[in-house]
Specification:
By secondary structure, the chain is an alpha/beta fold. The protein has ten helices and ten strands. Bound molecules: S-adenosylmethionine.
């Protein structure tokens, strides 16, 4: 597939998707595998802009983990490897997991280019402990990834799998877009966090209580879509507590202030 190949609504090459399916009706957890096609994966780094992202995040996750003495980290939504690489460079022991083989291959290559060998595991969160051995001090599920789970039973199951893969005093760090803001006030962004590339736009095309369909437009004219479940903040933290996490603290855009944040970061404690 070339970068300029025309794509249909879900990012797959024209002609490969069931053209009769209304894109706003695709609300299936397994859909993420079709969304992260090779060309989109190649462009993902252009979209997230590693340098800009490193600057905006600063040492937030590193300090959070170090302060709690966490060493063994599972990067559950590795994507193209941004956090795995940052954490390896900071001295953590990192296992890099993702359900998309394309993403993991790109992450491995990104690590190799920086002189690092990523320990990759190809696993879907819903069956994490079947495919992954060992217990972790911390699990990271970052980059608005949990939102890919469209069915409630998959969200519960994933959180339960994360809980089981943590040591008795482990923590889960999971982030999400501030969907309450999008659902209640409409979309606006400070364009400061995550999607730092100024050449690329990431905006919702359709939103209702169970779907946020975002379009990512690149300077070469190509466009890709992600269909996501718009997690309300209290709903997410409620689920975390229901599966057993004892407390959840939420940050907004890497600060204590969650008010007008574009992104929320939940830190859930197992004990
Ligand atoms: N964390 C990376 C970042 O911040 O750049 C990647 C974020 S990307 C939005 C979401 C990632 O979650 C993708 O790599 C996708 O393959 C992965 N993912 C989505 N659903 C998954 C599932 N059920 N099991 C495992 N990985 C999943």
């Amino acid at each position: 597939m070339t970068d300029t190949q025309p794509t249909v609504a879900d990012g797959s090459p024209a002609g490969t998707r069931n053209e009769t399916e209304d894109p706003a009706k695709i609300r299936r957890t397994d859909h993420y595998k079709k969304e992260y096609v090779q060309a989109f994966v190649e462009k993902w780094d252009e979209l997230i802009d590693w340098e800009g992202r490193a600057k905006s995040e600063g040492r937030f996750f590193i300090d959070l983990l170090k302060k709690r003495g966490k060493v063994l980290v599972l990067d559950a939504a590795t994507g193209t490897g941004f956090h795995s690489v940052q954490l390896l460079k900071a001295g953590f022991s990192v296992t890099s997991c993702d359900g998309s083989a394309e993403m993991l291959a790109k992450a491995f290559e990104n690590g190799r280019q920086r002189g690092l060998i990523l320990n990759t595991v190809h696993a879907d969160w819903r069956w994490l402990n079947r495919d992954l051995a060992g217990k972790f001090d911390a699990i990271l599920c970052l980059g608005n990834s949990f939102t890919h789970l469209h069915e409630e039973r998959d969200r519960r199951r994933t959180l339960a799998e994360f809980y089981a893969a943590l040591k008795h005093d482990g923590i889960l760090i999971l982030d999400q877009r501030n969907y309450d803001k999008i659902l209640d006030e409409g979309f606006s962004t400070k364009h400061k966090f995550y999607y730092c590339g100024d050449q690329v736009s990431a905006e919702p095309e359709y939103v209702d209580e169970s779907l946020a369909r975002f379009c990512y437009r690149f300077p070469d004219g190509s466009a890709y879509h992600l269909n996501m479940f718009p997690l309300r903040r209290d709903y997410t933290t409620g689920l975390m507590k229901q599966v057993g996490f004892t407390s959840v603290k939420t940050y907004g855009d890497f600060t204590e202030d969650t008010g007008d944040a574009d992104f929320l970061i939940h830190v859930a404690e197992k004990s």
